[in-house]
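Sorry, explain these tokens?

___
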Amino acid sequence: MKKYVVSFPRLGNYVYPIYAMLDRIIDKDNVSLLMPKEMTNNTIEIGANVSPDFVCLPFKYNMGNLVEALDSGANFLLQAGGGCRYGYYAEVQEQILKDLGYDFKLVSLLEPEGLDVMKLYKKFKMLNKKLSFSKFAKEILLAIDSIRVLDNVETYIRDNYAFEAKKGTFDIIHKEFLDKIIDIKNFKELYILKRKTFKKLKAVQFIDNVNDKIKVGIVGELYTSMEPYSTFFLEKELASLGVSVKRYTTVTYLLFIKKRKIKKHIKYAKDYINYALGADGTESVAHTLELINKGYDGIIHIKPFGCTPEINAMPILQKIAEEKNIPLIYLTFDSQTSMTGIKTRIEAFYDMLVMKKENERKIEDNVKSNEENYTYKKEEMLYEQVLHRS
């Protein structure tokens, strides 16, 4: 029997490069991997039943993931840690699970002060005593590059999903990509996969009326942005209505862009904020302004129930929406949230955006028509004056 069976909470499709990295690192004679189960209603029900009532949604989903993993035989759990209250999750989750009678080891990968490479290396050595630092560094860099490629592929699909001429084409390419990225062994394989995937993506034919599509930007908390099940596949729902969706938050953004852009975001949104709001709140404000300036038709703000930084951002977003005359809808998710209720609100929001766009188009047409009539009459008067003089 192997000493450790390793698993970890699920977060969108990031499970694939993470699983691949662990598979390259572990000592396979003593350690095995357990892929986190697909999210289901059972996941959130389990998590909600063993979690404090007023803890935020990511905690409950993570708990559901961890209980499902333990019940499937895992005895070594990895947790990311870091960020707002999320940084305290590992210790609390470990205590709850041990109170429930589970026997396991839980390792939080990030320290309270952030990433400490040497401490992280020592934690991974628990899964392979022979793991050298050079091997560890190589595999971490390959995992980071894999995540970057995953984000690039999914961002391209998300930006263009509503425009595909033959529905389902992007889904097929996406599935083929995910099936292969989990087996990546080196940088060469990764770059070949990236090149081939983008060649397929850019060969997808688009509809003719691309500019007529409603464009919606999504801002808000990171977990609900990146774990599609937690928002009932909000982006796919919007795309099914023919909406073009923009979302900034990805793991690549969080790791490499967010921290160095925080001052720029505060400066960009200086009419509304003077300091960082914490977690993703600052980005919600700055990105909302950016989306408006790029001509998006509406904004959807998403968050887990009780997310303090996003609650702080909401009155600011409301002020922006009123001043900029941009439709804005708030969606809050918890274990009690109804999929039907969310779908109904999204459809109503979409109908409102369509009517607003049609009214704006009519106004533009009337203005253009009046300008043309004015120009025509002015030219006619000039022509009559010329004839009179001659």
In short: Residues 214-390 form a domain with the Rossmann fold fold (CATH 3.40.50.11900). The chain has 15 helices and eight strands. The mean pLDDT is 92.
